[in-house]
Amino acid sequence: MSPDVMPEAQVALTMTEPGNKTDRAQSRARAARRRKIVVMGARVLLLVAVLGLWEVLSRAKAIDPFNFSMPSKIWDQIWTWVMHGTAQGSLGEQIWATLYEALLGWVLGVVAGVVFGIALGRITFLADVLGPYIKVLNSIPRIVLAPIFVIWFGLGPASKVASAVVLVFFPVFFNAFQGAREVDRNLVSNARILGASDRRVTLQVVIPSATSWIFTSLHVSFGFALIGAIVGEYIGATEGIGLLVAQSQGTFNAAGVYASMVILAVVALVAEGLLTFAERRIFRWKPAGSDS
Amino acid sequence: MSADTSPAIELRGASKTFRTPSGGLHTAVRDLDLTVGRGEFVAVVGPTGCGKSTTLTLVSGLEEPTEGEVLVAGEPVDGVGDKVGFVFQQDATFPWRTVLSNVMAGPRFRGVPKAEAKQKAREWLARVGLAAFEDRYPHQLSGGQRKRVALAATFVNDPEILLMDEPFSALDVQTRALMSDELLELWEGTGASVVFVTHDLEESIALADKVVVMTAGPATVKQVFDIDLPRPRKVEKVRLEPRFIEIYREIWESLGEEVRITRERGAAHVA
């Protein structure tokens, strides 16, 4: 192609393109919007269908309404709890009791897990000595400790916090340990050359690069903390959502059990949202979309 | 010997043996003698994987020699000293720190007050042309810009000895030439002694006062060539000079043989 033909061809292209481009962009945007609406609609439809089917089958007595309850009764139960409180006090108090135990247990478990994980990841001697014991402890199904904690610490929050801690500790510990082990050796060498002491290397290189590992475990472990708190309350407590479940079960109130589950789900989702928000703030240094 | 007259770096019969994961022994460097004078720019070339980088880790104090002695300014190396700067082959900027904070890291690690560290860091960022980028994170920069951050972070510590391990090998050819020129400019103001490891013979001749050719691994010094090209040099220009080509041919005769040995070994390994 001779060079003097080029400009003409380009002009022709740019002449026709703008109209085309905006047209196509518009139709593409429209298609994307339509798809979004369809997806949302399908989601709502699915929920309505499942709840409706449940309601209808239960009312028609195709499934036992006493055991399986029905969405309307569950909603009534939640409404009663919200408006008139539960048998052991207001609903807010119950939620707060569970949340308090879960949060405290989670924070303690996370701190212990991170400290031990980083320490064992950095100090090979400690890892060699403690390694087998940690494996043994990890292989115990830790939820069976919950009754023991109720015996040790009584019906108050302490026993629930303890079961949350043991559930949270291990996943956080293993991730922090792995994170500390897999720090880029170049970064450590570079920090040492630049003049960092061992303590500085740990604080300013190992911990920051292990944070993405640790954060992965934080999401999972908050769920574990809730489980610990609920199971502890279920076994023996004076307040909390777990106690709500236990009492509903004791009075053959299936709707109460389901209602507690719904409340728990909402609490867990809100907590998860807050955690994701915090993560975004902390990981501003990461390239967008590199997170798997 | 007084500290003032002793050479910047001296390796005497240094050897380094590593234990491989399979339990065997691997000798990276064997019986190495090398002297680098004060303010001298020495390039070390050798076939890939021959143990050039190990030489640098011995001088830096990150590793200890299995045998022999390593002296920096007449003193035996004991751990990482404060005279040394090291530019790594891979990216070694801290990804969670901003550009400014990365350059401040060295002085802060060495206990320089924050305000002073910040001022020094800004000066060096200006010198490498990244003053406008101080708030960025490394992932927002190009490979060449990240290398500049690494240079600034190293130079800000005023190292007497500058160790560079194929620092520009990950860059594209144009950026590489540009960075080489910048390195020469930055270095000429400091009077630091440089050991620059590379497998690129052209780069080594263009930059250095002295080119050391290493043997196929385990590495030891095969031959040392003085480069009598005048300074200041521009990398793109100097490589076209007849004297450059003459030197290139001379050194390649020595280096090519070692490259051939390494290649034959690799082939034998595959077969």
CATH A-level architecture of the domain at 9-83 and 159-270 in chain B: 3-Layer(aba) Sandwich
Per the principal axes of the C-alpha atoms, what is the gross shape of chain B? Answer: globular
Helix content of chain A: over 70%
- Specify the number of helices of chain B: 8
> What order do the SSEs of chain A take from the amino end to the carboxyl end, as H and E?
HHHHHHHHHHH
The name of the CATH topology of the domain at 9-83 and 159-270 in chain B is: Rossmann fold
Helix content of chain B: 25-40%
Give a verbal description of the structure.
The complex is a heterodimer of chains A (292) and B (271). By secondary structure, chain A is mainly alpha-helical. Chain A has 2 domains: 1-63; 71-282, MetI-like fold. Chain A contains 11 helices and no strands. Chain A starts with 5 loop residues before the first helix and ends in a 10-residue tail after the last helix. In chain B, strand 7, helix 5 (173-188) and strand 8 (193-198) form a beta-alpha-beta unit. The longest helix of chain B has 29 residues, at 242-270. Chain B is globular and about 55 Å long. The mean pLDDT of chain B is 88. The interface between A and B is medium-sized, with 23 and 27 residues.
Descriptive tags:
heterodimer; A: 292 residues; mainly alpha; MetI-like fold; 2 domains; disordered N terminus; B: 271 residues; alpha/beta; Rossmann fold; 6-stranded mixed β-sheet; 4-stranded antiparallel β-sheet; 8 helices; cell membrane (chain A); membrane (chain A)
